[in-house]
Inverse folding.
């Protein structure tokens, strides 16, 4: 789910010539502009990913911790 979400974000943020799939076919100044737009969009995607990870870490630290289970006295086995 995360890969599709961040892939969609990358596709929306990319504002270079053509689309991301046709970046390799571009030549000259168009290729340079496309690579620059791709790198800029990828930076934003990674910053969003880091923000999500930081939020998850904060939420994980707030989870209640389970203390050691209280030891119950051993019960004597029932004999017939």
């Amino acid at each position: 789910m995360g890969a599709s979400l961040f892939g969609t974000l990358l596709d929306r943020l990319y504002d270079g010539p053509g689309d991301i799939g046709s970046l390799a076919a571009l030549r000259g100044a168009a290729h340079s502009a496309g690579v620059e737009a791709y790198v800029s969009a990828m930076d934003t995607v990674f910053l969003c990913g880091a923000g999500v990870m930081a939020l998850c870490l904060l939420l994980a630290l707030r989870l209640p911790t389970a203390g050691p289970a209280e030891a119950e006295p051993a019960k004597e086995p029932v004999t017939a």
Notes: The chain has a mean pLDDT of 87. The CA atoms of residues 39 and 64 lie 40 Å apart. The two ends are 59 Å apart (CA to CA).
